[in-house]
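Need residues for this backbone.
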């Protein structure tokens, strides 16, 4: 048998430090057969497959740790640094030759190939039990499906390369690779997860000991997400892609709308709830009962009861991005503040009575100042009125001019983001907020900004609830579960429920659709969801294009800072709904069809 020499590398960020799965990494070179003969080395090979799971708190340097440009590339925020890929997306300065496009594509396919190699060879493990082989195979199969899901949501109908790994010396042209339809890709991902879930359910993990390893809830969550994408307007009867076919003339996006696809997605979400709620998962409620603490701590309390999956250890780059510059502060409390929340995102959060700011009953003041005590503060401070009387999620997500900084170990720091403030453009030079606001969500309160011994939440029950009600509303708009589960989210956030005495319920399917979209926007803010939501809804050309606003960060007087100004005119073109196939991939395999418009 031909021997392939491989180098095993992995990082210790992937699985829980409560076990020794990744504690010792072999640095010697092994033959292919040696790797799969030993369970010890086979597990380390599997850890390499895990290493392709994205670490989305590394978005400043897109594709670092497989991260994407999702927050800065949406209407949620703007990075101050021009090298961030999200900034290129925002002005249309990217194409099929952009290196980050190729990196993300290649990284996910690398993970797919590695998973297939593992599945093909794990049965050679002489010291693995039959139960071990079944479990490891199920993990690798789920990882493979997850990587395809990541490809599908950016590139649409991608290439299914089969269950067996492609040999490294294969002639790709002779293999006749082609784009598979979105229905084929969806069916494959669902099939892989259906094969894996029973084995994952049978895995006998000790509670808390294997938190970083994929378990059945992860697989079921990705199954419903895949079906949700397949049901959404971008992939369900999208006639904009009537001419989008592969090299064999096969339609890649279905041209007939099928409402039953929403039912498939809702059914899997309901299955998840019935299996795992409340026995295994429930919405996190802080012991104090304070809604602000609940919405804050759900993102920073490791492995709390709402977290379906979190990527262990990471976040220092993100912490630096969302810690304001704080001229003169100690190192723990001095960052860049370079991830600026847009005015559009700020305005999306509800007022304290649960209404949008444009609602006449919202109790919203558009200008002026009041003495107001934020929920994280110990005293009232003069605060710009638009930032007073907002819902708890606003104060968890946005740092604004004049707000008390979260960590008080270095003294009480009042963040000033106007031009001459401690975190303004004059102080920071290259490190400042480009919008006058700084994203605050998921900051590890009580820790130094260099803190990395935390988890990065990737999947939580609130998102599944919102997926569920969205799918339900599209095919069964009178289903009572829509209000029940939407209101669970609002209740935890400390705002009135729809249909309560304080707030009327949406009366039509369209009104409910708008309510669900608004709830997703604020509940899942800065969680790498919004970018994909507006694309799958086919609203990105409306919300991601045109003037984007913030405070006047260049005003030399603080009183002039409060004038809202456009900082950028953004671009979203028809081709931006699907990422381009990397040009180097097309050069290697001319039989592939490029996405429309590229």
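Answer:
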């Amino acid at each position: 048998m031909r021997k392939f020499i491989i180098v095993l590398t992995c990082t210790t960020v992937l699985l829980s430090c409560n076990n020794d799965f990744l504690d010792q990494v072999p640095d010697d070179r092994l033959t292919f057969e040696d790797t799969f003969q030993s369970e010890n080395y086979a597990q380390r090979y599997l850890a390499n497959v895990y290493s392709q799971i994205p670490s989305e708190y590394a978005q400043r340097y897109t594709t670092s740790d497989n991260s994407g440009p999702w927050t800065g590339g949406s209407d949620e925020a703007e990075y101050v640094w021009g090298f961030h890929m999200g900034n290129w997306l925002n002005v249309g300065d990217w194409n099929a030759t952009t290196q980050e496009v190729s990196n993300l594509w290649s990284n996910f396919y690398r993970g797919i190939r590695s998973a297939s190699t593992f599945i093909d060879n794990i049965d050679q493990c002489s010291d693995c039990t039959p139960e071990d082989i079944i479990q490891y195979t199920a993990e690798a199969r789920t990882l493979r499906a997850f990587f395809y899901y990541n490809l599908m949501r950016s590139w649409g109908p991608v290439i299914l390369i089969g269950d067996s790994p492609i040999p490294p010396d294969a002639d790709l042209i002779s293999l006749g690779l082609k784009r598979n339809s979105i229905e084929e890709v969806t069916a494959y991902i669902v099939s892989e997860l259906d094969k894996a879930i029973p084995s994952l359910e049978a895995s006998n993990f000790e509670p808390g000991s294997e938190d970083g390893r994929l378990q059945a809830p992860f697989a079921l969550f990705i199954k419903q997400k895949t079906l949700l994408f397949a049901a959404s307007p971008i992939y369900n009867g999208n006639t904009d892609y009537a001419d989008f076919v592969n090299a064999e003339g096969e339609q890649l996006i279905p041209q007939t709308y099928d409402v039953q696809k929403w039912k498939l997605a809702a059914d899997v979400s309901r299955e998840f709830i019935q299996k795992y709620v409340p026995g295994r998962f429930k919405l996190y409620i802080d012991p104090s009962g304070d809604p602000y603490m609940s919405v804050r701590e759900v993102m920073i309390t490791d492995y709390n009861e709402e977290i379906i999956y979190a990527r262990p250890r990471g976040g220092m780059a993100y912490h630096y991005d969302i810690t304001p510059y704080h001229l003169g502060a100690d190192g723990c409390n001095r960052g860049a503040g370079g991830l600026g929340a847009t005015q559009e995102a700020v305005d999306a959060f509800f007022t304290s009575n649960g209404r949008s700011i444009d609602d006449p009953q919202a109790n919203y003041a558009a200008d002026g100042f009041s003495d107001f005590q934020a929920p994280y503060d110990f005293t009232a401070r003069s605060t710009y009125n638009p930032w007073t009387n907002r819902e708890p999620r606003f104060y968890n997500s946005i740092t604004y001019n004049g707000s008390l900084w979260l960590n008080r170990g270095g003294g009480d720091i009042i963040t000033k983001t106007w031009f001459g403030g401690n975190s303004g453009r004059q102080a920071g030079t290259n490190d400042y907020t480009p919008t006058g606001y700084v994203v605050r969500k998921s900051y590890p309160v009580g820790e130094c900004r260099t803190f990395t011994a935390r988890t990065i939440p990737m999947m939580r029950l609130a998102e599944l609830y919102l997926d569920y009600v969205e799918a339900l509303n599209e095919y069964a708009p009178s289903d009572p579960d829509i209000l029940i589960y939407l209101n669970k989210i609002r209740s935890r956030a400390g705002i009135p429920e729809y249909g309560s005495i304080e707030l009327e319920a949406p009366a039509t399917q369209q009104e409910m659709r708008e309510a669900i979209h608004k709830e997703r926007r604020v509940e899942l803010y800065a969680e790498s969801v919004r970018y994909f939501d507006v694309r799958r809804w086919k609203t990105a050309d409306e919300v991601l294009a045109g003037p984007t606003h913030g405070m006047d960060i260049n005003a030399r007087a603080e009183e002039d800072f409060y004038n809202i100004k456009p900082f950028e005119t953004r671009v979203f073109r028809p081709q931006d709904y699907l990422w381009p196939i990397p040009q180097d991939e097309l050069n290697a395999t001319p039989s592939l069809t490029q996405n429309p418009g590229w």
